[in-house]
Fold this protein.
Amino acid sequence: MKVTIGGPLKLAFRPWVEGLENVPAEGAAILASNHLSFSDSFFLPAVLDRKVTFIAKAEYFTTPGVKGRMTAAFFKGVGQLPVDRSGARGAGEAAIKSGIDVLERGELFGIYPEGTRSPDGRLYRGKPGGLARVALATGAPVLPVAMIDTEKIQPPGKVMPKLMRPGIRIGKPLDFSRYQGMEHDRFVLRAVTDEVMYEIMKLSGQEYVDMYATAMKRQLSEAAKAEKEAEKAAKAALARAEKEQAEKEKAQQEARKAQQTEQRRSEP
């Protein structure tokens, strides 16, 4: 996949990279990145010599049909791990277990602390569960990563990508060994996550928003729905007004006709 996808990707888009020397040549490490685009999971592994394993929703691996099998083969080929989002605690526990397994094999594990893509290019609050728990459970160093301009390559709704140079900045590894054994302390998890997000913010230059991206997406979705309903209501009101005006004009015309008829009858 590095040859068939990574090579052409680098040739076509020529991504610039800073901080490659911070990625260890061997051994476990966590790459904690901001998330601007679907392509983030391809650009980052493409510029590294080592394999990076991310997690992906299980639906990518279980969709039936020829297209489903091709999708599953693709995601397996680029090192994605399926995570079943069903069950009492959903993807969280599955993601943590997957990350620990990858790191215990001495490999690189990629994770997006925001939990989803940024809806507007800003950096959102990191979720304290996955990243911090995996880091504290394994003792693996955390490398903050900033993806830059990847959201401009293929904005939502655009089919054809725009040929431009995205950037990748990889920060120095963060050591959280001082919190070893405290992976179930929610205050520690919050502190670890916030420290990583602060480093990502410095690397990316993004505006920071102290709320979860999922909450912002929900707000945007509700706002769009409300706007659509308001537009629909306005159209309905306009249609009613036009109908009432038409009925009024019709009544006036009929009244004038009746008046004219009455005048003709009264003429000698």
